[in-house]
Structure of 16S rRNA (Cytidine1402-2'-O)-methyltransferase:
Amino acid sequence: MTQTPSSAKGTLYLVPAPLDFGCATQSPLDQSMPAHTLAIAAGLRHWICENAKSTRAYLKRVDASHPLGVSLQELQIQELPREVHKKGDHLGGFDATPLLAAALQGHDVGLVSEAGMPAVADPGSSVVRAAHDLGLRVVPLVGPVSLLLALAASGLNGQNFAFVGYVPADPAERAKRLRELESLALKTGQTQLFIETPYRNTALLQGLLQTLQHNTRLATSSGLTLDTASTHSNLVKQWKQSGWALDNATPTVFAIGR
């Protein structure tokens, strides 16, 4: 049963991270992260994250402009279990309550992903659910969300859209899934957004061009918020004519529709 929020309890802050994780270059934090978000992040001692090492690296960048309230060595960082990373935590099955012990003792806690908004295209929803069930205040902070940036830049339907996660890596299964998504997009007008793991961009793009109909619109957004960011949106037949290729290592959001 959901408990009544209490002022004696801490707040769970959903802290966005810049989208340059895993990229060859990094952009200044003040180009994508509001000062208010960085100030709150700098004041937090307790964290829940995917990876402690990358979280410390992020907070070291924060410290350069907004000095941390404690040293990096004094931060209390807890990692989500590995199986949560692999399978996700939106369907239940993982009890995140123990991770929020500090919040129940009155300490504010930050939830952070390696890039973008935690719990959106990343694990963390189990932590948010547990916070609500414990009567904690949950506050999402402002920062970059790659899916919405890519959608806005695509020229596709922004009134009706769905994020479908990853498509299969197996070529035959991938082609089947892409046809299903294309059929849904063309029938309903709903834009379909999906992503891929690093170094599979080229294979996915080739699969899209081999599978989709000529007049389906395909959009890609790579390296969002970086100076090298690029978005391409064309009909499949135009993609084939242009011969344009993706950087295989740069994080990319794919979208199809009409």
